[in-house]
Amino acid sequence: MKRGMQLLASYLSGSWSPGSGARTALVNPATEAPIAEVSAGGHDLAAAFAFARTSGAAELNALSFAQRGALLAACAKAIHGAREALIDLAVANGGNTRGDAKFDVDGGSATLGYYAELGARLGNTTHLPDGDPIQVGRTARMGGQHIWARRRGVAVHINAFNFPGWGLCEKLACSLLAGMPTISKPATATALVAHRMMELFAPLLPAGALQMLVGPAGDLLDHVRPGDAVAFTGGSSTARTLRTHPKIVEHNVRLNIEADSLNAAVLAPDVDLSSETGGLFLADVVRDMTQKTGQKCTAIRRVLVPLGKEADVADALKERLAAIQVGDPSLENVRMGPLATAAQAKDIKAGIARLAAATDSIYGGTGEITPVGVPAGKGYFVGPVVRATKDPMNCAPLNEHEVFGPCTTIGSYDGTAVFASAFVAKGDGCLVSSAYSDDRDWVATFVGAAAPWAGRLYLGSSKMAAMSPGPGTALPSLLHGGPGRAGGGEELGGERGLHFYMQRTALEGDASVLKSLLG
Ligand code: NAP
Question: What CA–CA distance (Å, rounded) separates 137 from 366?
């Protein structure tokens, strides 16, 4: 298929429609060359919602979990079949290295595959028990049972630019398995991967089960009604707009928000940098700074090391970062590409400048870099940046602003788990934070105090180092989301991921009737 200056169509009401109005170019962020266009709107979104509520709902309602799981398995297989082409698109449109692109594309298919298996396990049923039967009367005859039932509504997914493939799949896996027809909107700037996935999925799914709006949201949210569910990933200011959207407020529409996060990584005092745990810590920090050019919501932004170890950590990071070639991500020797958009590059440079005013440079200054394989002056490049603060707890630019790029800041502490957990809390709620320690007492104190501030705590140690994917990888089996600044949302987490798209209902009655209802 020719992929020159293609006008990306949306898939709405059962057909592909290019829309109308002013066009926006999608570019290759390494060269700034335009590679596709989207139109500003002109779509009949009222009709798309109606199509989801009628055709999509009826089709999915007729299917069991196992059958919906089989649909997800077919989508995962389709991604596998088109993997190389999808990776090429992610390299061209996302500024991804091949490794970054695989992370997005394979992460998407793996998540679909995980939920396909969950569907098979849940089997030939359409609702789920929530906990055990409860005796609510004087005798066991009068019982209670909570269930999760299918919701009659539309799931609306709004995704961020950084994971066009994985973002589409991780939300879709849960809503489709739960039985909700879905309208998905990828971020405009990097929509090519999601658009191609929609082309792959469309022939595999029942009519109305999945639609895709490519381009700006327009009046998308004006059509939500009671029973619908909106899942959003993106920046906190857009999140605020959604929270106060009149239709979301009027109809009490469920809203899940995955937003900014100032994830921390803490090295405990028992860890020698030359140990397995120390090596894991260094590898995780470097991976999170450079993978996807630091544009991961889960990436380590704040690093805490015991007093006296700052210089050793700084030297080790410098050595590893110096080996990372920055430039055109389509080149084999390049390990880090550009930021995804001009706007992101501007934001990140401003964020680093704010940090620079309050911190010292350890590596990379403020991110100036001459990328390899790129026409002079082109591309949205920022090099890896390590900063250091003498007062990590009170460094406002560090603890209040997410720099969504290849930048991290190191501070030191007294080595206590109490200080470490307070530092995690200083981010006002994060998706994930990590602690590296082989001292179980230290870890227990850390977890007790840090858990309320993180959606996930990653506990790095010698026993798991060899098989760890690092804190930056969101796994389908574990919750993704976090309190406070991170949006207060929850996605994934195995079966928990379905609950946002289902209704929990308490049943109260004859215990034997309740038992028979659950099969
Ligand atoms: P963004 O500007 O908030 O955009 C996110 C999505 O919202 C895009 O699809 C965007 O569409 C859409 N959008 C913008 N305005 C809207 C409106 N008024 N109504 C409905 N939809 C609207 O964020 P971004 O620049 O893509 O992502 C960067 C931020 O996302 C980072 O700050 C990062 O922290 C956060 N993030 C969080 C997670 C997580 O899982 N927690 C993951 C990734 C990123 P257009 O593209 O068409 O404008």
Answer: 67
